[in-house]
Amino acid sequence: EMQTIHRKLIRELAQTKAQSFAIAMVIASGVAVFVMSINTLGFLTETRDAYYERYRFAHVFASVRRAPLVVAERIESISGVAATQARVVSDVTLDVPRLDEPAVGRLISFPVKYESGLNRVHLRRGRMPDPDRAGEVLVSDHFFHANRLSLDDTIDAVMNGRRQTLRIVGVALSPEYVIQIRGGELLPDEKRFGVFWMPRLQMEAAFNMEGAFNDISLRLLRGANEEEVIDEIDSLLKPYGSIGATGRDQHISARFLADEIKQLRATGLVAPTVFLAVAAFLFNIVMTRRINTHRSIIATLKAFGYTDREIGWHYMLTARSVALAGALVGV
Fold first, then answer.
1. Are 176 and 257 in contact (CB under 8 A)?
2. End-to-end Cα spacing for the chain
3. How do residues 209-267 score in pLDDT, each as one tens digit?
4. Which candidate, 69, 66, 71, 70, places its Cα nearest to that of 89?
5. Comparing C-alpha atoms, which of 71, 57, 111 is closest to residue 88?
């Protein structure tokens, strides 16, 4: 008996193959977008986390006006702190070739043994600056390409009231500036805001910061309480002009990147929902119309002894066959 009703199912699918194919393709589109979005999100999240870990992206950040290096040693002794890096960071005005208006450059010092520091840079082109040669810097990849610069190009910068020439010897990436955006701006401006890395000794001399720092980054031990660490850092840095330490979740580049991933996740769920809702609407129309036109056939099936459950399963199987075919194609 069930073989007969199955033959009826195959015959009906063949008679409505155009409708079935259209609905299956709508389902396939929704499933394909969903699978693609989930896989892409997983890949992006894993890549971001691996990049942050490999290049030792810090967990906590704080800025001050000027603090002695001994304070950084006290911060490193706080329970839960794995490593610290005290830096000199300053925004300067740049005179960039082929750019009509001044740009802003963020100069960041890096230690002599930069391989063991935090927020390490990845050198894409060129070489690391020589601490014994004045003015040699690394430049962020975004700024380098946006302004069509080349290695050994020079840029004039106003550093601590004095004009100094910076020579580009390398192009770098940093987990700290995956999204190169300046605080207070809504969108990245890669042409007018660039990040530069300079040896610490030269930064100290240029900004009169010998034996001092104005920016510190920390990595925490696994399981450390970030809020408690931040409270202790704030109490140590408050006399030196700190406005408060922040965690990675408040770091502008990391937060911007996390928001982009969240938006992608939302988009990846909205589109499949629309496709599947349209498919459900089409299914409703097709099945309602089919059952209304099959009243005499349903009566005949019941006369031959088929139960309501068997007949209902037969029509449900028609919809499931189309849905399954579309889902398999989408996957």
1. no
2. 34
3. 999 999 999 999 999 999 999 999 999 999 999 999 999 999 999 999 999 899 888 88
4. 66
5. 111
Q: Rounded to 5 degrees, what angle do the CA atoms 49, 53, 55 make?
A: 120
The alpha helices in 16-117, defined as continuous H runs, are: 17-54, 69-76
What is the C-alpha separation between 153 and 82, in angstroms, rounded?
38
What is the percent of the chain where pLDDT is above 90? 61
Query: What is this structure's pTM?
Result: 0.77
**Residue type present at position 298:** I
Q: How far apart are CA 170 and CA 128, in angstroms?
A: 6
Q: What confidence tens digit (pLDDT) does each residue in 69-83 have?
A: 999 999 999 999 999
Contact 110, 200 (CB under 8 A): yes
Count other C-beta atoms under 10 Å from residue 103's C-beta: 20
CB 159 within 8 A of CB 107: yes
Classify strands 81-87 and 60-68 as parallel, antiparallel or unpaired: unpaired
Nearest to residue 279, comparing CAs of 32, 33, 30?
Answer: 30
Do 259 and 186 form a contact (C-beta atoms < 8 A)?
Answer: no
Strand ranges (E), 55-102: 60-68, 81-87, 89-95
DSSP track, 209-274: -TTEEEEEEEEEPTT--HHHHHHHHHHHHGGGT----EEGGG-HHHHHHHHHHHHHHHHHHHHHHH
> Tokens 């550093």 label which residue?
159
> What six digits make up the tokens of 133?
């040669």
Q: Is 321 in contact with 287 (CB distance < 8 Å)?
A: no
